[in-house]
Amino acid sequence: MNLFENLSSEEKKLFSAYDAMAKSANFNRSDEEIFFDKISLLGSARLLANTTRKGRIIDDEYIKTKIMQLQKNPPDYSSMGNLGALNSAIKCLYEAKKLANYDRTAYGMYTDNSRSRQFTAKGARFANYLQQSSNSIDIINETTSSWIYRAPRNFIKGKIDHRYAINAIPDKEFIQKLDDFATKHGMHYKTCRPTNWYDRNDSIVIYCPRAQTPEEIEELKKIAAPYIRRDKPSRINDLDGKLIADGIVTAKEVDLQQCDQLYQQLSKINAKLAQHFKETVDKNISKNPQNPISLGQFQNYTNLLDTFREFQKQNHQNNQNNQRLRGQDLVFSALDDIFAKNQNTPKTLSSGPSARQKSQEHMLSSQKNNFVKGNPQRLNARISTKPSLKKVSKTNRTFNLVKKAIDFPAQLFKKAVKNIYYKMTSSLKPQSSLQQPQRQNWRLNPQRRAMVISRYNRLKQHIKAAKKQLSTDAKDLIIALRNGNNIRQNPQISRAQTRGLKLSNAQISSYLADKQH
What we know:
Layout: H1 9-22, H2 31-51, H3 60-72, H4 85-98, H5 121-130, E1 137-140, E2 147-152, E3 162-166, H6 172-185, E4 188-192, E5 204-208, H7 214-224, E6 242-245, E7 248-252, H8 256-269, H9 271-285, H10 295-338, H11 355-373, H12 394-425, H13 446-482, H14 491-498, H15 505-516
Antiparallel strand pairs: 1-2, 2-4, 3-5, 3-7, 4-5, 6-7
Helix pairs in contact: 1-2, 1-3, 2-4, 6-7, 8-9, 8-10, 12-13, 13-14
């Protein structure tokens, strides 16, 4: 799951404020640091929303304070260990995932929701029962732990295969029924401490040495149904696992093989995340060699993996877009410079022969004059036929044809670019540097930026289509000339001429004369 998806409106405002700060010139952070900054902000904000009923919320003042703190003292995520900034960010995200905020006055356990809250008589009886062993159940009640473990007498803990998490109300009768269920099926379970019962959705977690049978699952569902907590906390966090009944989920426990696979995946995308995950596993492996990390912790790192992958993908796409925008800026700046001396309306594609064609016509005209001077008797006569040209070799004729065919699409391409450019830019505001010598940075104007991107994409499409058609026309021209077709009547040549190829009569005669020879 990508943690940056399905953000609340307050979380989106927080990220928008951070993005605005990250774009400023005086805030230089790498992509990795930006990712961890956002993870830290998200974890802190969600933890605040999950554990506070009234007063402190993710408002404008909170957002302003968090951004100013981050700008003034940017965290260093290179340090590992419990006191490192990276550990703090991941820990906040995990605690925000697992903690909830229920009304403590519900079910008659506490007198109020204040910090100085006190147990009611019912709450005191429940707390005492939960922390005492019975004839059939032993308990492990370590003061440093948030949990109280309950297991049948003479129970030997082995490898854990499955777990069941239950969102249950604090009730003495339910605990007695679970003691009987655990003894009957050879399993153990843990409960929140009485003071933590309203802080978590998974108030009870049952550990099973094997996958349970359908009959055992139905028995558990029947026992738990009257005690499922159905009131909602201030922010709902889903239980980890597959939902099998209201308030009950099941999941396969995390083993060493899964931990190794996740570590290999994390190593491929970010060394710091992989190292932090390894330290978390190593810290717990001595206590629980088979299942060194909880399902909630494992899911937290899995979410970080998915989020970082998507973050990298988005950054890569943004970098490509920025490169494309820089390319667009260079292209249009160059075009503005090229056409700065031209008029606003360019010449059309049918504006006349190219410079090369004019040169060729001049050469033919000179040959014609020389021919007439060499025949004075025909000086005043009407010339009904064109003079024959000097015979050239077959190789030279072929070379000239190919050279002319190659020159045609190049000239047409230049004219197409001019026409397309002016057609697209004539209606845009602000206009090109021809009317606005000192152009503003168009990236700062969202509307202008969208217009430039659209204009650039259309230009590429026109150029691509023009290149394809030019190649086809040039090929048709060469084939027609090679086959000796009538240039004026050939449809391919006619189409090529309408697209910008203007052959003079002298050139046509030249091609025909070459073919006759």
